[in-house]
User: Which sequence fits this backbone?
């Protein structure tokens, strides 16, 4: 019998408890071993819970789990950095294997945690940390092991994808869509992490560390969230044949450089990523042997995430049962440098408000240099006003050149305000 301690019994922890108790026999049959939850750490023992959790298992004292010699596996589903990082490290020092869905901890402290686990000859499993129910960690670590990965595209945050879909399809406001995502259990306890793009940055740093075998410092990733996206941007994107998604990008250039970033992106409607809606996430990977693969599923929520966590628990139990040694972990190679976004060439969508005077487009186009702007248009419904919104779509241009052009736009008297700038991904690069 493998005895497990759960840290947290909220959205995901509750789902894990439910699966481990209702599918107990099934799990034992598949594993050839019983899994027993011995203790569950929560913040408040007397809180009303969704599932009928055996009250005798609940504790508010983490030491009852971490210092229990019978518990071989600790499943961390509290989230955040404090007190979680300390609990994980203490558990490893007590020779417990770890399962976690905590992307923040892995992205920020992964190297330290994996080293500590190696020193203590225990393992850390983290399938639930990226893409909810999508088996993406296993895909990268095992199924694609023969490949050199050239590129990863991911829609990796269920909350923001749900919000953008609601804003696009149902014309629901940002705030209302966020409230719905929270009530469905998709959002982080502080939804700032979702909306700001940080959650997505943690996830792409974990995937990139695995794919490019090079520990990625999450603080050096360019991150932009969805908080500046307005309905107008979504409508224009639709008219132009694009959908706006919060896209995570990881690209390898010539074994020397990595381009890793997270930002709202215009995705052509012809690309399958544009069709991934609601809480669904997707990861598209290019490997030199297999070519492109795409894997998608629900990226957040109780049961999809619990599915990934229970898979990890079962794998950890198997490893404990058969005494399988700790193998490699993320970040084996060094030396790949991150490129700053200034060096990267993209097309850009730019929305501004200008005085509606003859010749205003010509002045704006001049700021970009000849031939850099492919489409410039007035948003027609505002045409009778003296100040009108317009948008531009540039040809591919280096970001630093685009910024220079924006600076010169700001100096034009007829440009009242730059409302939004969004990158357009063309998906045509070859790896
Ligand atoms: N929700 C989702 O869709 C997904 C979440 N994740 C990750 O899974 C983890 C858990 O998320 P989620 O289940 O949504 O979080 P919840 O907020 O729903 O649950 C957190 C749990 O931790 C307990 N807890 C919080 N603080 C403490 C503390 N200081 N000491 C002891 N227990 C504490 C809470 O106790 P109590 O119940 O008493 O309040 C609760 O049971 C996070 O790392 C998150 O990023 C990953 C993928 C998807
Ligand atoms: N808040 C996250 C939860 C899963 O990681 C999301 O919305 O994707």
Assistant:
């Amino acid at each position: 019998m493998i005895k497990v301690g759960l840290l947290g019994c909220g959205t995901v922890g509750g789902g894990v408890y439910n699966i481990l108790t209702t599918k107990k026999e099934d799990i034992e049959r598949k594993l050839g071993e019983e899994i027993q939850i011995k203790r569950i750490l929560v913040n408040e023992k007397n809180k009303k819970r969704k599932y009928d959790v055996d009250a005798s298992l609940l504790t508010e004292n983490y030491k009852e789990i971490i210092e229990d010699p019978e518990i071989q596996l600790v499943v961390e589903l509290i989230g955040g950095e404090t007190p979680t990082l300390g609990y994980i490290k203490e558990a490893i020092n007590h020779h417990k294997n770890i399962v976690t869905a905590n992307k923040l901890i892995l992205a920020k402290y992964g190297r330290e945690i994996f080293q500590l686990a190696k020193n203590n000859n225990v393992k850390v499993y983290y399938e639930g940390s990226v893409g909810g129910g999508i088996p993406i960690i296993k895909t990268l670590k095992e199924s694609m092991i023969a490949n050199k990965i050239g590129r990863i595209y991911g829609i990796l945050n269920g909350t923001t994808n749900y919000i953008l879909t609601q804003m696009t399809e149902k014309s629901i406001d940002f705030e209302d869509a966020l409230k719905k995502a929270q009530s469905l259990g998709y959002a982080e306890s502080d939804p700032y992490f979702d909306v700001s793009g940080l959650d997505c940055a943690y996830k792409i740093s974990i995937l990139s560390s695995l794919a490019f075998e090079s520990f990625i410092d999450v603080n050096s990733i360019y991150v932009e969230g969805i908080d500046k996206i307005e309905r107008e941007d979504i409508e224009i994107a639709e008219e132009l044949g694009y959908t706006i998604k919060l896209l995570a990008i990881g690209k390898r250039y010539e074994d020397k450089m990595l381009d890793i970033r997270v930002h709202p992106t215009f995705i052509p409607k012809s690309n399958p990523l544009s069709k991934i809606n609601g809480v669904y996430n997707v990861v598209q990977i290019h490997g030199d042997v297999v070519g492109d693969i795409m894997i998608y599923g629900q990226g957040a929520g109780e049961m999809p995430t619990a599915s990934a966590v229970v898979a990890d628990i079962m794998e950890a139990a198997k490893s404990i049962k058969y005494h399988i040694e700790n193998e490699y972990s993320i970040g084996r190679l060094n030396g790949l440098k991150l490129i700053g976004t200034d060096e990267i060439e993209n097309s850009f969508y730019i929305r501004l408000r200008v005085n509606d005077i003859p010749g205003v487009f010509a002045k704006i186009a001049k700021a970009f240099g000849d031939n850099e702007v492919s489409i410039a248009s007035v948003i027609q419904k505002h045409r009778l006003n003296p100040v009108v919104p317009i948008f531009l779509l540039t040809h591919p241009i280096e970001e630093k050149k685009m910024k220079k052009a924006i600076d010169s736009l700001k100096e034009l008297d007829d440009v009242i305000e730059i409302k939004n700038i969004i990158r357009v991904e063309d998906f045509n690069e070859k790896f």
In short: The chain has a mean pLDDT of 93. The chain is about 35% helix and 25% strand. The chain has three domains: 2-132+303-321, 136-298, 344-424.
